[in-house]
Amino acid sequence: MDKKDFNLKKGAKLRHWSSLLEEWLLLIDRYCRRMKNKDLPFFYTEKANTGILAAAAWRAGWIALQEFPEKKLNGRGFADLWLFPENKDKGEYIEAKIHWTSDNIENNLTDAINDVEKIAKDKSYIRIGLLFICPSYAKNIDIEQKIGEAIDKASKINSDVIAWSFPNQARKVWVDKKIYPGIMLIAKSID
Fold it and tell me: pTM value?
């Protein structure tokens, strides 16, 4: 069964992300459908996954830039993604990480938050740490149970938003005797 959804946590600073997340989920489904069980969009790197999120932003009427030079507290560096939401007066700087299991989620989100804290604070934008989680499982595992456990574990993390997509098509793609049934996104604003 397809499992896709998102949860904008009550009182969270990123409640305006609903249109972004809807488009992100649609793009993942579209990719899986078009590749006919031969490839997965989330199986790749942090940059590839950030690119899908950037594409979702454009589809939602926002603007987005990926991997651009930015002044950081320790000099110059690159920001992973900058978003400017529709009907908002502040941009959003995002530092993203990817993790391949649903273990140590909080520590991995903290790594993204630590990176985004290096971007100098300014009232004209907010800073967001983001974690993509792409768990893998061996054959002969109850995939539905594992997916449910992963979503439950991620939902308990202190964050502003969690989203997930576990398309049926992904359960048919095996890589090195493992299945990568989907992806989760967890984001937390620090401003």
Answer: 0.92
